[in-house]
């Protein structure tokens, strides 16, 4: 039987063709926390500890799965987001830390307001909609996605987290046919925004294992979803309502300009914790 340190070295060696050493260490840490309940700080203090055979087998099995390139969140079946665990599978985008920052921005802007009507467009696992619904007072949240399979996971996440969200399956590019005259205080979306050109620089485990319909847009129309959602917002946002987007960092200014061209008075770009332009607030 080995120590945690030895098994971690195993992870670094066996995953070296897919992940660099820091990524392999991070995956090991996530695995240790999920399988053994040991957090980062505890791990650093227990690296020399001998493992029992059950834990060692579990960590070795995880390593076998990881070496196929499958994301750890798909292997474990869940991913953390804004203080909760969300079920994920091959039909849902794995919630990203930068999207937590978008949720945080919205909550900071609206924390003292009650009875807000919200819509999350392209909800995936439901991470944005459920986090907002559960952190705002008496909110009324609608969440839409084109994928029935993603919505099935989102509904299960809402049930587990006791969030009442009205999930609807529809194509937002056809919103003129599918929406009535309902209006919202907050419209939020993290839509597909990665261009085919950017695809080549992406980690192959994202390319192979995450749904392409959640990620990619045609090279010739990178702002397709922003264009349609802005038009939707022009008719479905309440007079003092706010539209929030996660944005493509390379198209931040273009996305802002598009909003101003559509007639919105204000469009403010926000950077994430890594100083990357990542969010846009439009009102
Ligand atoms: C980038 S993912 C965001 C998922 C989730 N909101 C998150 O932040 O993790 C984009 C989502 O938009 C959905 N989507 C793609 N095309 C759509 C369309 N035409 N209408 C509605 N939803 C769409 C995808 O199925 C996917 O779940």
From TrEMBL:
<protein>
    <recommendedName>
        <fullName>peptide chain release factor N(5)-glutamine methyltransferase</fullName>
        <ecNumber>2.1.1.297</ecNumber>
    </recommendedName>
</protein>
<dbReference type="InterPro" id="IPR029063">
    <property type="entry name" value="SAM-dependent_MTases_sf"/>
</dbReference>
<dbReference type="InterPro" id="IPR019874">
    <property type="entry name" value="RF_methyltr_PrmC"/>
</dbReference>
<feature type="domain" description="Release factor glutamine methyltransferase N-terminal">
    <location>
        <begin position="13"/>
        <end position="77"/>
    </location>
</feature>
<dbReference type="GO" id="GO:0032259">
    <property type="term" value="P:methylation"/>
</dbReference>
<dbReference type="InterPro" id="IPR004556">
    <property type="entry name" value="HemK-like"/>
</dbReference>
<dbReference type="InterPro" id="IPR002052">
    <property type="entry name" value="DNA_methylase_N6_adenine_CS"/>
</dbReference>
<keyword id="KW-0489">Methyltransferase</keyword>
<dbReference type="InterPro" id="IPR007848">
    <property type="entry name" value="Small_mtfrase_dom"/>
</dbReference>
<dbReference type="Pfam" id="PF05175">
    <property type="entry name" value="MTS"/>
</dbReference>
<dbReference type="InterPro" id="IPR050320">
    <property type="entry name" value="N5-glutamine_MTase"/>
</dbReference>
<dbReference type="InterPro" id="IPR040758">
    <property type="entry name" value="PrmC_N"/>
</dbReference>
<dbReference type="GO" id="GO:0003676">
    <property type="term" value="F:nucleic acid binding"/>
</dbReference>
<keyword id="KW-0949">S-adenosyl-L-methionine</keyword>
<dbReference type="Pfam" id="PF17827">
    <property type="entry name" value="PrmC_N"/>
</dbReference>
<keyword id="KW-0808">Transferase</keyword>
<dbReference type="GO" id="GO:0102559">
    <property type="term" value="F:peptide chain release factor N(5)-glutamine methyltransferase activity"/>
</dbReference>
<feature type="domain" description="Methyltransferase small">
    <location>
        <begin position="106"/>
        <end position="202"/>
    </location>
</feature>
């Amino acid at each position: 039987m080995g120590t945690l340190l030895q098994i971690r070295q195993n992870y670094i060696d066996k995953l070296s063709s897919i992940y660099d050493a820091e990524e392999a260490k991070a995956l090991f840490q996530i695995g240790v926390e999920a399988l053994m309940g040991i957090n980062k700080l505890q791990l650093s203090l227990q690296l020399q500890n001998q493992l029992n055979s059950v834990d060692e087998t579990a960590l070795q099995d995880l390593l076998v799965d990881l070496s196929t390139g499958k994301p750890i969140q798909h292997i474990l079946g869940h991913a953390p987001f804004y203080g909760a665990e969300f079920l994920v599978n091959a039909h849902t985008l794995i919630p990203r830390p930068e999207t937590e920052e978008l949720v945080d921005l919205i909550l900071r802007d609206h924390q003292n307001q009650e009875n807000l009507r919200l819509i999350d467009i392209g909800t995936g696992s439901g991470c944005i909609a459920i986090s907002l619904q559960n952190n705002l007072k008496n909110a009324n949240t609608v969440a839409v996605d084109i994928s029935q399979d993603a919505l099935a996971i989102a509904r299960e996440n809402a049930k587990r987290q006791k969030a009442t969200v009205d999930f609807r399956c529809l194509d937002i590019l056809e919103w003129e046919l599918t929406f009535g005259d309902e209006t919202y205080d907050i419209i939020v979306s993290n839509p597909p925004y990665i261009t085919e050109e950017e695809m080549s620089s992406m980690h192959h485990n994202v390319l192979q294992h995450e749904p392409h319909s959640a990620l990619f847009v045609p090279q010739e129309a990178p702002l397709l979803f922003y264009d349609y959602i802005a038009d939707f917002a022009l008719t479905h946002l309440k007079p003092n309502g706010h539209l929030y987007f996660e944005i493509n960092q390379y198209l931040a200014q273009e996305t802002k300009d598009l909003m101003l061209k559509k007639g919105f008075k204000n469009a403010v770009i926000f950077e994430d914790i890594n100083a990357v332009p990542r969010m846009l607030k439009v009102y």
